[in-house]
Amino acid sequence: MTKLSKEFWENRYESGKTGWDIGYASPPLTTYIDQLPNKDIKILIPGAGNAYELIYLFENGFTNVYVVDIAKAPLDRIRVQLPNYPEEQLIEGDFFNLDLTDFDLILEQTFFCALNPSLRPKYVNKMKQLLKPTGKLVGLLFTFPLTEDGPPFGGSLMEYKTLFKDHFKFKVLEVAYNSIKPREDKELFFIFEPK
């Protein structure tokens, strides 16, 4: 399996091999964002990529949003697109080394599926550590067979339930009703709360 290093991701951005990029904020996430009443909540977007969700949040009045990406290229793109965005909220580094905590919300959009599957238990622990006890982990998980051909790497409903059940309560875990056409019936929308 390919080592998914900083260099790997920098090369993917430089070569334009960003097949996961749909070109705009994902409808299941914008629908969720649209019903959030408090625009002051502290939000994290790990593996920001081209940060369409960040732009959507920012344009809708959410300013306490942090992004972390191991690659520099997507953060540079954010700096161009949102020149007034607070620099300290754009973090270049390894998600697993992030030392910020107390997030009210973490948005998951293609980050989980981009990680080597061996890191999934570590992901669950880190997410719980980063969230406030009253926080939420919200986003999308792919449901296609897990292979070594990724990223993206897939998974199944049962696998996700087993992976998260010891650390999170499942508020919602169901097939997304408003996925884009190519991902129809291949995405689970979820809302998890720390146990």
Unreliable stretches, pLDDT < 50, 5 or more residues?
A: none
Strand order of the largest sheet: 3-2-1-4-5-7-6
Bin the helical content. Answer: 25-40%
Round the mean pLDDT to the nearest integer and report it. 85
Radius of gyration, taken over Cα atoms and rounded to an integer in Å:
16 Å
Number of discrete helical segments: 6
Topology as H/E string?
HHEHEHEEHEHEE
Could you please describe the fold and organization of this structure?
The structure is a single chain. β4 (103-108), α5 (120-130) and β5 form a beta-alpha-beta unit. The protein starts with 5 loop residues before the first helix and ends with a strand. A seven-stranded mixed sheet has the order 3-2-1-4-5-7-6, with helices on both faces. The mean pLDDT is 85. By secondary structure, it is α/β, with parallel strands linked by helices. The chain is built from six helices and seven strands. The longest helix has 11 residues, at 120-130. Helices cover 28% and strands 24% of the residues.
